[in-house]
């Protein structure tokens, strides 16, 4: 929890400071709502989501006959928590109690896919699970070697082919190796070059098909990795990837490097996808399972 709070400190200090000044106003009026809108949009909550939040706040103020701005904070927290939990309430990871769990990671270059895979491999290994990595980003120079460095650091096997080879073949081999070695979890990296979007999306679909042919209810998770510091761009990427593959959740990296952590709310609300993990730094332990209530708490502590 402490790590979560400090990782979010840039967001919380700017957002809370700003929201605080709104809540310190002398009365609830149009100007106050407008200021709140500006603050939320500035924190990357997104225009649509911001308008919805402020609309709901107006309704609650009316219904509950709230008079003082100081009374607004718990109401605002409630609204944000509600948006973050989403309609399906789905949040945790789909890890098989028995047999192999296959997790695909997709996302554009540089967002932190490889780092996240390393961090997650470490987490699951510490829980006593046998983890294998598949180096499915055969396109980006150095991606395979970088994954191998993580494999060595964490102490898990990495299945790799040569640079430029077919990612679906790597993932296929990953599944065979995982079965042969009795692994519990296979984490698969994939390419993230957006320069050739059509090819990339076809490649991801093929990886998906190959996994499904081997294990009908897999991949058990397809996690889209997004960089929180890219703001509304991240939403755009999410739309592109969601069209190609069935994304089951989001990993939001570099939340430590931005004061605009409101992007979490926009992602959940505008994409309907749960944020499952957040990256709060470059080190192996800097990955946290995302908990909506903890996030709100960190924002308004
Ligand atoms: P990939 O191209 O998507 O595989 O991205 P990488 O895993 O190589 O990460 C790109 C850069 O982002 C590296 O310098 C990582 O150390 C850094 N990075 C990844 N996750 C985080 C995070 O949560 N916080 C911070 N501050 N840096 C991160």
From TrEMBL:
Domain of life (superkingdom): Bacteria
Q: Quick one: a GO biological-process term for this protein? A: SRP-dependent cotranslational protein targeting to membrane
Limits of the SRP54-type proteins GTP-binding domain:
100-301
How does the protein's chain sit in the membrane according to the entry?
Answer: Peripheral membrane protein
Sorted alphabetically, the Gene Ontology cellular component annotations on this record are: cytoplasm; plasma membrane
Chief place where the protein resides: membrane
Q: What class of enzyme is it?
A: hydrolase
**Ranges for domain AAA+ ATPase:** 99-300
InterPro entries linked: AAA+_ATPase, P-loop_NTPase, Signal_recog_particl_SRP54_hlx, SR_rcpt_FtsY, SRP/SRP_N, SRP54_GTPase_dom, SRP54_N_sf
EC number(s) given by UniProt: 3.6.5.4
Gene3D superfamilies for the chain: P-loop containing nucleotide triphosphate hydrolases (3.40.50.300), Signal recognition particle SRP54, nucleotide-binding domain (1.20.120.140)
Q: Which reaction does it catalyse?
A: GTP + H2O = GDP + phosphate + H(+)
Where does the record place it?
Cell membrane; Cytoplasm
Residues reported in the UniProt entry to bind GTP: 107-114, 189-193, 253-256
Cytoplasm: present as a keyword of the record?
A: yes
Domain Signal recognition particle SRP54 helical bundle stretches: 4-84
GO MF, one annotated term: GTPase activity
Extract the NCBIfam families matched here: ftsY
Job of this protein: Involved in targeting and insertion of nascent membrane proteins into the cytoplasmic membrane. Acts as a receptor for the complex formed by the signal recognition particle (SRP) and the ribosome-nascent chain (RNC).
What PANTHER family does the database record attribute to this sequence?
A: SIGNAL RECOGNITION PARTICLE RECEPTOR SUBUNIT ALPHA
Note the subunit structure: Part of the signal recognition particle protein translocation system, which is composed of SRP and FtsY.
| Family per record | Belongs to the GTP-binding SRP family. FtsY subfamily.
What is the protein name stated in its UniProt record?
Answer: Signal recognition particle receptor FtsY
Q: Which organism is it from?
A: Marinithermofilum abyssi
List the top taxonomic levels of the source: Bacteria, Bacillati, Bacillota, Bacilli, Bacillales
């Amino acid at each position: 929890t402490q790590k979560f709070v400090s990782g979010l400190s840039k967001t919380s200090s700017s957002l809370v400071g700003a929201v605080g000044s709104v809540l310190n106003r002398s009365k609830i009026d149009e100007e106050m709502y407008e200021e709140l809108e500006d603050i939320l949009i500035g924190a990357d909550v997104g225009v649509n989501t911001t308008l919805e939040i402020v609309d709901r706040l107006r309704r609650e103020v009316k219904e509950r006959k709230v008079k003082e701005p100081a009374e607004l904070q718990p109401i605002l927290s409630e609204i944000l928590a509600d948006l973050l939990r989403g309609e399906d309430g789905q949040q945790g990871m789909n890890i098989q109690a028995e047999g192999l769990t296959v997790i695909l990671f997709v996302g554009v270059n540089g967002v932190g896919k490889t780092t996240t895979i390393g961090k997650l491999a470490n987490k699951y290994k510490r829980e006593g699970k046998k983890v294998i990595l598949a180096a499915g980003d055969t396109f980006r120079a150095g991606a395979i070697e970088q994954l191998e460095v993580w494999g060595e650091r964490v102490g898990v096997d990495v299945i790799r082919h040569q640079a430029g080879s077919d990612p679906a073949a790597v993932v296929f081999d990953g599944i065979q190796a995982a079965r042969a070695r009795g692994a519990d979890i296979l984490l698969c990296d994939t390419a993230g070059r957006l320069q050739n979007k059509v090819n990339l999306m076809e490649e991801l679909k093929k990886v998906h098909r190959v996994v499904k042919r081997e294990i009908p209810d897999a991949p058990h998770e397809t996690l889209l990795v997004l960089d929180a510091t890219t703001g509304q761009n991240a939403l755009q990427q999410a739309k592109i990837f969601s069209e190609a593959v069935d994304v089951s959740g989001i990993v939001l990296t570099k939340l430590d490097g931005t004061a605009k952590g409101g992007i979490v709310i926009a992602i959940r609300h505008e994409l309907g996808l749960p944020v499952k993990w957040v990256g709060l730094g470059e080190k192996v332990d800097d990955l946290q399972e995302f908990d909506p209530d903890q996030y709100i708490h960190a924002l308004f502590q």
